[in-house]
């Protein structure tokens, strides 16, 4: 083992590695996020007017033909602006919460590794949600087809939300975001080490490419399972943040403002299927996206260890 291996990166280096990993992931996978948002908003669109998308390919084709290729990246400025601290927080802050939870459980017998990962991941997700929720609101407003002519660009969107809805409107949906991010991170970090340890491994020292593949597979599987857990909260959050109180567009009026009341209402009126609208494009993004994130983070972290 080289002298650089086994080192624990300082917070600043973890921040940088997470930032690079996050920007790489969102740059590749963002179009699927646009598609996911469109599907999650569909219950607010009259199916009789032909506005519903029938599948991922249909959605991509219609967005490109009706709105242009650039629409697949419409609103990307907001998540890019927060992606670096968001992804860095996912790894760096999770390590700090892990220490806190481990110290809290240190006087209890037994192995609490799985429980520690779940609790620390959930706390990380809630912290993350408080940071990203306002940026998510702007992103969703920009991705909404109904707002295509309402907002010229991201800065215009921010200005109009502030002017017409007030500063507190940027916190719309933050409680649902906490449930969404908390459940995803809790599930992801709670399962990732178990998944990775159960994947086949070279009995000899694995090569860099073999280790990268294991990380990609572990991240992908973890991302898919975590997405299954948090999608209902994501659907609720998307719909709450899509609603514009000052708009005459009545199709964006919802009867809930909180996560669990939204989950209950959608389940009652649309069934379980309604809670999983946009699940496939979300999985296609966050599954492989989780793999990309883990691989890039590991590569950058390994490179930075040479300077520690």
List descriptors.
308 residues, 10 helices, mainly alpha
Give an overview in words.
By secondary structure, this protein is an all-alpha fold. The protein has helices spanning 11-40, 56-67, 77-104, 113-143, 154-165, 174-198, 208-242, 259-270, 272-275, 279-304.
Low confidence ranges: none
* Number of DSSP helical runs: 10
Query: How much beta, percentage-wise?
Result: under 5%
Question: So what's the overall shape?
Answer: globular
- The N- to C-terminal Cα distance equals 16 Å
Largest beta sheet, briefly? none
Number of extended strands:
0
- C-alpha Rg, in Å? 20 Å
Give helix % range: 55-70%
Give the SSE string.
HHHHHHHHHH
Overall pLDDT score = 85
Q: Which class do the helix and strand fractions yield?
A: mainly alpha
């Amino acid at each position: 083992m080289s002298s650089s291996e086994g080192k624990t990166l300082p917070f600043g280096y973890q921040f940088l590695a997470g930032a690079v990993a996050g920007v790489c992931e969102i740059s590749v996978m963002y179009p699927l996020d646009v598609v996911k948002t469109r599907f999650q908003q569909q219950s607010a669109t009259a199916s009789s007017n032909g506005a519903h998308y029938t599948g991922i390919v249909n959605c991509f084709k219609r967005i490109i033909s009706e709105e242009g290729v650039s629409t697949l990246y419409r609103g990307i400025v907001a998540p890019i602006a927060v992606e670096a601290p968001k992804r860095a927080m996912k790894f760096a802050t999770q390590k700090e919460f892990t220490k806190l939870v481990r110290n809290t459980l240190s006087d209890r017998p037994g192995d609490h590794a799985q429980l520690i990962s779940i609790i620390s991941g959930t706390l990380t997700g809630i912290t993350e949600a408080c940071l990203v929720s306002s940026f998510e609101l702007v992103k969703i407003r920009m991705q909404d087809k109904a707002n295509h002519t309402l907002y010229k660009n991201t800065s215009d969107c921010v200005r109009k939300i502030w002017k017409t809805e007030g500063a507190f409107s940027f916190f719309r949906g933050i409680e649902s975001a906490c449930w969404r991010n908390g459940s995803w991170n809790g599930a992801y970090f709670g399962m990732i080490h178990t998944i990775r340890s159960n994947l086949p491994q070279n009995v000899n020292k694995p090569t860099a490419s073999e280790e990268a593949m294991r990380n990609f597979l572990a991240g992908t599987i973890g991302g898919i399972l975590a997405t299954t857990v948090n999608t209902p909260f994501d659907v609720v959050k998307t719909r709450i943040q899509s609603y514009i109180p000052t708009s005459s567009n009545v199709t964006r009026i919802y009867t809930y403002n909180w996560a669990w009341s939204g989950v209950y209402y959608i389940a009652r009126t649309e069934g379980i299927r309604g809670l999983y609208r946009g699940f496939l494009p979300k999985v296609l993004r966050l599954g492989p996206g989780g793999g990309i994130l883990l691989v890039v983070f590991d590569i950058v972290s390994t490179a930075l260890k040479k300077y520690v």
